[in-house]
């Protein structure tokens, strides 16, 4: 009997479906199909590719309830959040269908030649290794610009969301993409070296853990393949005394509790000025009581389960160790399987897991500082640098402070988010390269210089 991946409904731990792993012959067929599809797809005009992507967006919107239900069933996201995820995928399809041609048009260069320009070419197949926390959005975030550039892609998704992975492939086929343009590979991690050694596979994009990114990128490097890595974060949210403290507290919790805290760009470390801490905590504790954890299909709850029991156990260990080291548990902390109530920790300091590590769950860690400079220093005292937020009414000051933070993005008086218009990616151990925006489209194209003299 072949090895299988099993999808499990996190809330009840009941099995949902089993997906047999592909054997070597099936994987080779997928590689050959990708190679064949690339020769066809790269010849499509931007208008032809845009037609497929706009049709994809239409299918997503027309079937969003069923797709959202699949997301919820496989990884526990609430129905409201799952529906929003599908709509975001549709938006990114429409965005690149509209803008990709302009983003990739030839760029005239002023040189001593009669004519010189930069021309952008597709590179081949891009291997995508994606996580489970946003099982549709993470895929569409890389796949849509990749496809609009004329490339094809092979997706190796997380084992617990194989249903989502297979459904995405079906959607692209239904939208009119030629067979082989988008393919899902149901296989274990040992397939990655085999895929990266294939000539048609010219790049790797991975969203996941630091360990996974390091391992996959080292393999890609041996084969001289381009990589883009997004490896998580421990984002800081700085609250200064002149901020709208009620809005700051509400938005901070919204960022932290979204997707049961399982978001790379969630605000994980709240760094609050001493002059603001009392009022901030009042608003925070008032708001956190409004989060009801439970069955993600229940429209009355706003916090679903964590996706896997091992993840919940790790978060519980990080909580317990931080409390043992002096952090104050001021709210929550109940763990029953994957069901975790919101957690608020106060007096979190460097050296504690809640400060030093990425806490991938509904845990808000609060650190009190005496000065603005201390806030910036602690924000930067992290191995990660994906996103950060600053809350203050002094926008000019915030713009100055943002430039002092070592992070791929800084949002002022707002939650950190990914959106089609803005490049997304990190610094330090959060990875390198960018997705989204024009920069994300340029990651997986060849820049060809053409110069002509008379």
Concise account of the structure shown:
The chain has helices spanning 24-41, 46-62, 64-75, 79-103, 137-148, 162-174, 191-196, 210-222, 245-257, 277-288, 309-324, 353-356, 372-380, 395-402, 437-442, and strands at residues 4-9, 14-20, 107-108, 115-122, 125-129, 152-156, 182-184, 201-207, 226-230, 235-239, 267-273, 328-331, 335-336, 339-340, 343-346, 363-369, 384-385, 388-391, 410-412, 427-428, 431-432, 445-452.
Describe the structure.
The chain has a seven-stranded mixed sheet with strand order 12-15-16-11-10-18-19, with helices on both faces. A six-stranded mixed sheet has the order 7-6-5-8-9-21, with helices on both faces. It has a three-stranded antiparallel sheet with strand order 3-4-22, with no helix packed on it. The longest helix has 25 residues, at 79-103. Helix 2 packs antiparallel against helix 4 and helix 3 (64-75) runs antiparallel to helix 6. It is globular. The protein has helices at 24-41, 46-62, 64-75, 79-103, 137-148, 162-174, 191-196, 210-222, 245-257, 277-288, 309-324, 353-356, 372-380, 395-402, 437-442, and strands at 4-9, 14-20, 107-108, 115-122, 125-129, 152-156, 182-184, 201-207, 226-230, 235-239, 267-273, 328-331, 335-336, 339-340, 343-346, 363-369, 384-385, 388-391, 410-412, 427-428, 431-432, 445-452. The protein contains 15 helices and 22 strands. The chain has 454 residues and is an alpha/beta fold. The termini are far apart. The mean pLDDT is 97. Strand 3 and strand 4 form a beta hairpin.
